[in-house]
Amino acid sequence: MNILVPHTWLKDHLDTQADPETIQNQLSLCGPSVERIYDRQGDSVYDIEVTTNRVDSMSVRGIAREAAVILDNAGFPSELKTLTLTDALPAADTETLPLPVIDNSSQLCHRITAVILSNVQHPATPEWMSTRLQQVELNVKDVIIDITNYLSHDLGHPCHAFDYEKIMALGGEIHVREAEAGMPFTTLDGASYETVGGEVVFTNADGTIIDIPGIMGTANTAVNDTTQNVLFWIESIPHEKIRFTSMTHALRTPAAQLNERALDHNLAREVMLRGIELFTELTGATQASTVYDEVIVPSNNKTLPFAPSEVERYLGIELPASEITTILTQLGCQVTESSAQELLITIPSFRTDLSMSADIVEEVARIYGYHNLPSRLMDTAIPTHKPVGDNFTLETKLKHVLAALGYQELYTYSMVGTELLERWNLDPAEHQQIRNPLTSDMEYMRQYVLPSHAEETVHFLEHSAARGTFELANIYLPQEGTLPDEHLVLTVLDTDFRQLRATLDFLANELYINDFSVEKPNDDTKKDRNTGRIFSSYGIITHKDRVLGSIGYLPEGKVGFELHWRSLLEVSQRWPEYHPVPKTAPYYEDWTLVLPNATPVGEIITALKSLDATVSTVELRDQFENNWTFRLTFWDTNEQFSSERAQVFKEKAVKSLQTLGVTLQ
Amino acid sequence: MKTDTFAQHITNIRQKLTQAPNEPEELRIFLFGKKQGLFSEAASLLRELSPEEKPAAGQKLQELREEMETLLTEAENTPSKTEWLDPTLPAADRPVGRLHPLSQAINEITDIFEKIGFTRVRYPEVEWDHYAFEALNMPSNHPARDEWETFFMNAPEHSQLGKMVLTPHTSNGQVREMERLNSEPPIRMINIGRTYRRQQDVTHTQMFHQFEGLVVDKNITIQHLKGTIDHFAKEFYGPDSKSRIRPFHFKFTEPSFEIDFSCTICKGTGQLNGETCRFCKSGWHEVGGAGMVHPNVLRAGGIDPEKYTGFAFGWGVERTYALRPGLHLDDIRLLFTADPRFLEQF
Fold first, then answer.
1. Cβ contacts (< 8 Å) between A70 and chain B: which residues?
2. How far is A539 from chain B (nearest CA, A)?
3. Residue closest to A222 by CA, chosen among A172, A246, A188
4. Predicted ipTM?
């Protein structure tokens, strides 16, 4: 969360000679990060990021408190100015108007502080205040609203101004309660809502919502330019309740963003007294009631033992206990020495983020300055226990191989929608569903990469210099009672089946996988949920009896394969097997066979290969109509292979292929 | 004739090859001319050999022939010095593939950390709440754990590990890595993976990538975190790159830091052509978070925080990559599309 702080406003709380650039640099290194400085209406305005645990810094005074310590330690003498406040008037002098009946719930509201301010006038907001509000990008409205916004920005606790007469007209009662579902309310900007149940709301005796506390007022109790009496109000609602209501109804107001953190309600006193001062001064109001202050859950200081040796353990340098004590004292802690090795630290209530030793180390370290620490690499032992099941080097190698073969790598989303699944005849019910998807096209974890990959590439290949695309990404297969089976799939998409097949062979070669083949699916492999379902026609990629993936035809003239990476890793070899180079030469012969229509060519090649151990390769060289020319390479490593021997095998082949209707041309 | 005499004959012929002409047609005649070609000359003596000597001699002759054929092929494929060649001819059409920019970045990140002893790991994307949040010291009411920021799975809760979520960060690998190593440091992990958050605009996608470093051992201090980050900055962005750590807040580290790298575009000055650099914040880029591992996280991984300390960092791959000069991506969503106008630039 960010806060804007004008330099002049900061100096209301901070005594320093440091210039804006120094303040920016020093604060960024040791505390909240000053991301930018804007020049607005003649002043430097800091744009400061405050971390979510440091809600105490979400005000001009909070930043001044940090800046005083940081600048002072960096050699720029600085001090936080004391906040001088006039005490509220005692009861005897003020009770002219009755406070509403307040019916609190200890679980839902930890503190309520309120006062009635009567005879409010409506002059224009003074220029000094309107300028500051504009500098920090708050709209200038009615003086009453402007005072509450100013107070919140100045001191860091939201506050609210009710129209007192409206509260009284609605029955004069304020009940703190948890909403049921379906309760209507209209916020002061005129937008209408209904509760979902569970929000903390203020109602009157009839159950009408009269405020969304800590977030936004409602129209029925809002001040306007005729308001005469104001009920000036500060409450402390549990922060998780604020976040729930604010997120549920998308009411992300500045008040909600403060109140949804662990804000210290001890600030209420300062805001109340400063508020009475400003209302009196700027609107001519008079205090018309005693200050009501009901603290149900007190916000107290905590104490923590701390060993100064912890600083050395984290920083690698030794700091004397006296220096540690000085830094912590400057930050508002009280430090006493409980023993020679231990300090006892009392933490101020606004530092809700400090609860253990490491937190104290951080405070000391950041004020000392991380930039003052040396930078060096570890000199400890290098771990050698590597994980099993992954081979990142091989993943990278294969990606480079595919890119060199002309394929473009893609990254597509892991999630898919119902429409896509149905287009690919996949059942959404079989997929792991996301309960709260952001968009309907990303509702399920995919079980195939090819569908979303292929749809993404509809126009890609027409306009690209690549021959196809590929992706190595996880799929997610639901499992009973445990996390989905999540594993990598290598997907390659092409427009030419034989080119794709060549790519598959090339990859197998790179992985030193021998004995792999592509087969027509049989009854068993058809049942395998991991194969085939996304293709119009497909084959199973196997190694011995193991299914590695599937390859087939896709819509719109595309072809593709999916290989299961872990299966590939299991059958791959890290290096090839060497055989001495034979003394004999290979012998080639081209045979042209006439195949009946729809003969699976792969089966013919398998049959030719199995003729004899001397058949080392069978390649398809040419095809015209039903005539298929294969080049057979015979290689007998013991003696030179002759044409006479080839003739014997040719006759054998003709005989064995006869049953398939194959003849020799 | 004796076989060794024939071998001498072949050697003599081979010496004559040194006088071979360069012009392909002249070379063809020199080698394979029917009457005066060297091969004919070599083969002529074969007739004088006995049948027993012939196979060995034939083998030698065959080797010579192959050598001569190679010479001729080379000559035919060598452009003549006198032939006109147009060096301005365009390249032949060949398919061009590329690695995705994210893979390029991930490969570099992996190499940079492996060089200093980190082990790359991969952990689940669909994860239990325990590893994604609970073991990382994030209380049940932490905003990251609510359904506005994190994707929850429609699946039964695990009795010990809680709800099933899509991991919003690679930090889920921290306690998993401690468990993998049986809670026995040293640990130097680099976990790179897909992460998911409920957000989508020009600078955010529902799915993105992070890399997570984790070091746990005895005597690990903030100095080592600074050293590791400096090493990465100089390797990834160049030797002039600077890094700094600033106080920040994360539940699973204490102290916590924001890591900044000096802006590569304005060279860390915050000014570009006399104006405020719009690519950075006053000369620095926020890259991501880091910190000393929270004692509760070490405990969750079975490691004694009194004996060991450690640091961790987790940054977006997309963002880290896009901070390189000339790689400012105006719309990060393009990374997950197949737009050749985008992809073919990398």
1. none
2. 26
3. A188
4. 0.82
